[in-house]
Amino acid sequence: MKKFSLSVASLIVGATFALSGYGASAQAQEKEVKLKAGIGSSLTGSSHGLGIAKFKELIEKETNGRIKMQLFPDGQMGNDQSMMDSLKMGTLDMMVTSSAPIANTTKTFLVFDLPFLFTSEKIADTVLDGPAGQEILGTLKGTGLIGLVFWENGFRNITNSKRPINTPEDLKGLKIRTMQNPIHLDSFKTWGANPVPMPFNEVFTALEQKVIDGQENPNTLIYDAGFYEAQKYLTITQHFYTPFVLMIGQKSFDKLSPADQKLVQKIALETRDYERKVNRENNAKYLDLMKKKGIAINEVSPQDLEKFKASAKDIYAKFANDIGKERLDKVLAEVAKVK
Ligand code: KDG
User: Fold this and answer.
1) β-strands 157-160, 214-217: how paired?
2) Between β-strands 67-72 and 33-38, what pairing exists: parallel, antiparallel or unpaired?
3) What are phi and psi of 157, to 5 degrees?
4) CA neighbours within 13 Å on the CB side: how many for 91?
5) Which of 5, 221, 224, 241 is the best mutation target for the ligand 1 pocket, counting ligand atoms within 8 Å of the beta carbon and taking the most?
6) Residue ranges of the chain with pLDDT lower than 50?
7) String of DSSP letters for 43-58
8) Ligand 1 atom nearest residue 244's Cα
9) For position 186, what pLDDT does the model report?
């Protein structure tokens, strides 16, 4: 059973400054730096856990331990939203979150929540690493958050304890946990479910206590968080593709010397392909493991998938203004180019 430790953020906030005193002196580069990073999942089974562990390994190695990182997994620093608040305040330095909660800070991030926007990993990588994706990362400027790089959370599938999902009608009346994001809520309403927005670290208990019937996540997290233990069915829908975003708080970034700022950006980029590769390997491996452990897995037929797509079409128009029409068109044009 997956247990999440209580948040220790409140104990740490205010008790220490996350970064050791970092003057603008000529020797700033030689000064010791401590960076605290939080994620909502494990360090060993989740791709962003392995990714942040790799980031720590590389930055400590490259600076011979002058920069040290302390990692807080399993939501010890709070959920995605509260970790973002801590980054803005400067009480936590770095974090990895799904892009969906970032849309509550910068609406343009909603573009990544559009149903069936990306239909292959190649499309996702090309758009995220290309001009449109990088521009969207840049929209965080001035919010207190700096988006360093897109990693991968991945294609989301639905699990539930009631029945296999083949068509939107099968979702009718099911209480499905979603992230706290308006497009996710609207999409599941459109498909007939009763969406229940909830932070990630409350989902396992809610499933176990049957407060909700199901949830949706990529295979990697369904396995790593143990959600499958409280679920009977897993349906491959791939209805959303969720990027992970590795972020550093503006306050923490400003305390680094220019050379260390560059180093943080360089290593963020170096970890990108590693994190995506691990995610893709685990996604397939964990699906197999869950099958062996008895969860019933079904795929939706292409015709039935069209029903999900058709009923969610209006969502694109509904959120175009929030995303920014030009930006949405640019993303759609880049998607079409890769297709
Ligand atoms: O550690 C996992 C979370 O931070 C979260 O972003 C994962 O996609 C997610 C969800 O459903 O909340």
Assistant:
1) antiparallel
2) parallel
3) -120, 160
4) 17
5) 221
6) 1-29
7) SSSSHHHHHHHHHHHH
8) 6
9) 98
Q: Of the CATH numbers 3.40.50.1970, 2.60.120.10, 3.30.530.20, 3.40.190.170, which one belongs to the domain with range 32-338?
A: 3.40.190.170
pLDDT recorded at residue 282:
97
pLDDT of residue 339: 81
From the CA of 259, how far away is ligand 1's center (Å)?
32
Domain ranges of the chain: 32-338
Q: Cα of 31 to ligand 1 centre, how many Å?
A: 34
- Indicate if ligand 1 lies below 6 Å from the C-beta of 190: no
φ, ψ (nearest 5 deg) of residue 45: -110, -20
Nearest to 114 by CA among 214, 222, 234, 242: 242
Among protein residues, the one with the nearest Cα to ligand 1's atom 8 is: 98
Please tell me the predicted confidence (pLDDT) of residue 3.
Answer: 41
Q: Where does residue 198 rank: exposed (0-12), middle (13-18), buried (19+ CB within 10 A)? A: middle
Shortest-distance Cα residue to atom 5 of ligand 1: 98
d(CA 271, CA 276): 9
Cα-Cα-Cα-Cα torsion 328, 330, 335, 339, nearest 10 degrees, comes to 140
> In angstroms, what is the span from residue 65 Cα to ligand 1's centroid?
30
Does residue 80's CB lie within 6 angstroms of at least one atom of ligand 1? yes
Give the pLDDT of residue 24.
44
Of all protein residues, the one whose alpha carbon is nearest to atom 9 of ligand 1 is: 98
Phi-psi label, residue 8: left if phi above 0, alpha if psi -120 to 50, beta otherwise: alpha
- pLDDT given for residue 338 in this prediction: 95
The residue count of the chain comes to 339
* Integer Cα distance of 218 and 107 in angstroms: 23
pLDDT at 30: 66
